[in-house]
Amino acid sequence: MSQTHSTGQGAKSGGPANAAASGNVVKRLQSELMTLMTQPTAGISAFPAGSDMTKWNATIAGPADTPYANLTLKLTLSYPSNYPYAPPEVLFKSPIYHPNVDFAGRICLDILKPGGAGKEGAWSAVLNTQTVLLSIQSLLGEPNNASPLNGEAALLWDSDKSEFKRKVDARHLEPAEIEDDA
After folding, report:
1. Could you state, in order of their start, the residue ranges of all structural domains in the chain?
2. Which residues constitute the catalytic centre (predicted)?
3. Is the bond into 87 cis (omega within 30 degrees of 0)?
């Protein structure tokens, strides 16, 4: 399943509308960061990767009673200039073996697809970084095998949980072992 990304009117560069949109995106992300810091949610964290507020790093703790239990997974989030009206691009930086994640780290999840008039995605401007990360964490234990990006993982999830767990462990790297993009 491929991901589609919207390039709304605010995505054009150079004009005053883009500057206003960028300012609004930064304000929204600052608010989300403050919420994440003052009201932390167990098992997830996210923060700007540097001075660019539209590029974030995140970690998710693997949910208990899943093949990802006791694992920490690293992700990146890149927010478009028309956020929150379009979803962030979210990629796993940790190598992961999962039915709905390809080997490039792309995630097939409805809320990461633009929604709205005539579109199939479930993204809504009421969603935020915290809800995105919680949804991805939930997906780890409840994959959508009807729409896999990794067909082998989908088959193993349904047929051989011990082999699935072996492949998860073989592919996993701890966050400290993952190089950051410079």
Report:
1. 16-175
2. 108
3. no
